[in-house]
Amino acid sequence: MLRRQIRERREFIYRKSEQARARKTEASKKKAREDVGLHLEDKLHQTTYEEQEAAKLQVAEGADKELIAGSRDDEYRWAGVEDPKILITTSHSPSSKLKEFSKELKLLFPNSQRINRGDYDVKQLLEACRANEVTDLIVVHERRGVPTQLVVSHLPFGPTAYFTLSNVIARHEIPDREKVSEAYPHLIFHKFETKLAKRVMDILKYLFPVPRPESKRIMTFANEQDFISYRHHVYKKVPGSKDIELSEIGPRFEMKLYKVMGGALDQLDTAKTEWTVRPYMNTSYKRRFLTKE
291 pairs with which residues across the strands? Predict the structure, then answer.
């Protein structure tokens, strides 16, 4: 089993590197075709019918190669085809507040299961997840009874995103809260503009299955100064009016990204660090990484 996982991981990395090289080659070819594209139409008018068909075929073949090179063998190629299967757990020896927060996280993600961490280490957790075809592992950490960190690891080959948590408000602390709906939620992402932001959006978006159009459950991830605010609502139409009413379900919290790794949690020794916060970044307080300046 371990040898097969190592082999599949190597094959996956090799395919990604080959496709990155193919995209770079096709980008240079595309630029060359665009440089001569202005003269292509004149050339077609001056040639015979056979030469015109050959030129059209050459252009079509180039477009097909470009399409093949652009179709990435990325980690989310089955997203939307199969529903995600999520496992939620905590750090070792969790407090009662962290257990309560992990239970509330289970209510947020459809098709999710929560287990007690016990004495299991990361390697054992990942082996169990792969054996049961789990697509994502979520681990919650705490400091003095307050949830402070959220780790999302996509399986089997990553990526893994690390978020800090702040301003965590549990469901029981929200007045007049509604019951948790079991419908698949619609997602709203606000101000995810950069390439890194798109990567983070994919990591969060594919934790949820595709909702039905009539679903009235909404989850919002709003980015403001690189802090991602999470809110959970249901809506209903006001009788006799076009207005709608929003009712918060909870919980609510703020997330801030501080690292993205290219592998799963048990592959971090060999995985590539796609992005991480560095000490010198603290001095550039006006710089933003998820929104365009």
Answer: none
Q: Which residue has the higher pLDDT, 283 or 290?
A: 290
Tell me the C-alpha distance between 230 and 78, whole Å.
25
**Cα–Cα distance between 271 and 264 in angstroms, integer?**
8
Nearest-10 crossing angle of helices 2-46, 49-70: 150
Token representation of residue 189 = 């992402």
Residues facing 207 on adjacent strands: none
Per-residue pLDDT reduced to its tens digit, 104-137: 999 999 999 999 998 999 999 999 999 999 999 9
Burial class (CB in 10 A: 0-12, 13-18, 19+), 181: middle
* Residue (of 93, 92, 231, 77) closest to 154 by Cα position: 77
pLDDT exceeds cutoff 60 at 67: no
Tell me the whole-structure pTM to 2 decimals.
0.78
How far is residue 178's CA from residue 285's CA, in Å, rounded to a whole number?
38
Q: What domains sit in the chain, N to C, each tagged with a CATH number?
A: 2-70 (no CATH), 86-283 (3.40.50.10480)
| Separation between Cα atoms, residue 135 and residue 142, nearest integer Å | 24
Q: State the pLDDT confidence band at 90, using cuts at 50, 70 and 90.
A: very high
Is residue 179 classed exposed, middle or buried when 0-12, 13-18 and 19+ CB atoms within 10 A define those classes? exposed
pLDDT band of residue 66 (cuts 50, 70, 90) is very low
